[in-house]
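2024-03-11 09:14:02 DEBUG pipeline.ingest accepted 1 chain
2024-03-11 09:14:02 DEBUG pipeline.ingest length=380
2024-03-11 09:14:03 DEBUG pipeline.predict start
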Amino acid sequence: MTKRLRLLAGLLWLCAAGIAYAHKLSDSYLTLRQSDGGSAFDGQWDIALRDLDYAVGIDGNHDGRITWGELKESRPRITRYALERLTVESISRGDREGCLLRPTELLVDEHVDGHYAVLRFAANCRFRPAQLVLHYGLLFDVDPTHRGLLQISSGKLSQAAVLPRSHPTVAINLQSPQRLQQFAEFVTEGVWHIWKGFDHILFLLTLLFPAVIVYRLGRWEPRGSWRESAFDVLKVVTAFTVAHSLTLSLAVLDLIHAPSRVVESTIAATVLLGAMNNLLPVVLERRWLVAFVFGLVHGLGFASVLADLGLHGANLALALVGFNAGVELGQFAIVIVFLPLAVLLRDTVFYRRIFVPVGSGVIGMVAMVWLISRATGYAG
């Protein structure tokens, strides 16, 4: 093995190790419902148990399982930690005042990616607000990539927003929904979701690696032209897009269901199979069909964010279209960065005989770790 090959393998393995064992990126689901159009709101905050354990420590005996008894014992710490990181202000006719947040109940529920603590609380404002201003700070001290998904209902009107660390404050007009702002936020969330979704990125890369080369007589050779490569990428990416858009929509509309462990394990398997096909080519001519079939599974993975938010009507339509558009933009950005570099390198021995096999091998090892951990429930 040459020095350059050892260096490449080492760098790829370091990146893969970080991807495989990094703390799971998270979302929480915050809902506020105005009571009879008055000054009081009923709140519900769904927070992943794994995140709360990471932040305040719930698993008292450190056995990797959080029991109902441990959750109840941790209730004071959970409610204090959460409500100290949320402020709600009421605004009306120039008056602005903070609302009092009071915990009422702690339950547990299962989302597509595991069990969540369900913190119910009351938000009592001194006067009926025309506008609510929320400042969100949950988990940012331990996980800066965390995001809050907010839904506010007032009468027949309902609005949604995304609250990342970079924009933790949002103003919600209870009388006039800001649909364009909501759409833009979910476009951003879609872009962010695919960029932080390492399994989706690695699967896409396994499809892009051979786009600029062709397998002949037992080895990879450069394609004849960049147009041929671009057309191959177009077919593969279009098939993947159509497939995951289809299942994303069906899952969010609650028309299809699949257990989270099955979906996440199958996604890991698609990454593994994509990498193996680059090392031991079996599917050569119709990789777009593979992209379509496997894309159906990835769409179910994308759906987890919106399905748990429980949106309806115009809210759901805006969020679904915006989120899906964001996913496509994020995917397109990856293609735009990768394809020109691959076209420039396709004639080199380095790309065909070192980068593709080593890169695919490392991706395959990461996917194997994911598959085992997701199928068994062992987080490492």
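2024-03-11 09:14:41 DEBUG pipeline.report The CA atoms of residues 28 and 47 lie 5 Å apart.
2024-03-11 09:14:41 DEBUG pipeline.predict end
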